[in-house]
Specification:
Blueprint lengths: L2 H14 L2 H4 L6 H8 L4 E2 L2 E2 L13 H10 L24 E5 L5 E5 L2 E5 L33 E3 L10 H10 L4 E5 L3 H6 L7 E4 L4 E4 L2 E6 L18 E5 L4 E4 L8 H9 L4 E5 L14 H10 L4 E5 L13 H13 L2 E2 L7 E3 L16
Parallel strand pairs: 5-6, 6-7, 7-8, 12-13, 13-14, 14-15
Antiparallel strand pairs: 1-2, 3-4, 3-16, 4-5, 9-10, 10-11, 11-12
Length: 362
Amino acid sequence: MAAGGVGLAAWLVKAGRPIPEAMGGRATGSRAARMAASPEWSNGRFRNQQLRFEPSSRTLAASVKELVAGRQERHPVGDVPLVREPLDARPDGTHVTWLGHSTVLVQVDGAAVLLDPVWSERCSPSQQVGPKRLHPAPVALRDLPPIDAVVISHDHYDHLDMDSVKEIADLWPEARFVVPLGVGAHLEKWGVPAERTDELDWHEDTKVAGVRLVATPAQHFSGRGLSRDGTLWASWVLEGETGKVFYSGDTGYFIGFAQVGERYGPFDIALVQVGAYDDGWPTIHMTPEHGVEAAADVRAPVMVPVHWATFNLAFHPWGEPVERVLVEAQRRGVDVVVPRPGERLDVSALPTEPTYWWRSVT
């Protein structure tokens, strides 16, 4: 074999070695029985009961053409400005710190809840291939305040990152992992004991460090390999004594948001997915306009856009999501705050005007 072939073979072996572990585990025994008893489970998988999943109308050829020849600027043209200031361990009130993509540190009444932690360079089962970060993580995991709970919305690689889970489990042995049904099988394969995990169906809750965590409906799908929908997906309510936060997870826009608002609202602030949208998959990722509508539906006067800026996962321009959010939010009377990655927001003293920081790198 030529030297180039040997090198390629070695690279393929290196790239493929971590994939089986990163794909996670499969539910068995009592975990599988509990999943099968869920109202969201039918014919061997979880389903969006209120709207049947619609596959993308975009053909593979059209996707490849758009990827290669599309004229959108899908990457920032400069360095994304990061805030690298230390984060207080136990601040009073409610604070949210967007750390990139959908990773957010929520601090409520002194408790620290970490949403969808992804610190890896790529959101992929292999760190040799797959979508690569467009900016560094603004804070190292070890430099975060002590974490009380880790909340996962679903098991896609850009929300459930094996290496981050392992590091968190080692750094904070008392931290609990609060996840939708079935996701605990992945964590258990990665060394997180089952007794550290709370697996919830929609409208089930648990309390960690005084914060009530409720799994609420979303309209999405799941899967880390060829099989799909073997674990549940969810949005989340985080409710303390003095503050309440909503997190959308990944989702299409649907009637469930109004139902969440009626049952659990109002909220002080909503963290809402606004990026990685496309005309071909409106039922699984919201457009920016639908994100604003979702924030209004759950009865949150303020929204923070998430699920944008960090990984290139769709065909729209890099800075387009927040520009569209601002236009729609003004029309609907929803306040929007767009922090820089790493910038902590005090929900009781939010900025009144956007800084438009993304425009300097768009």
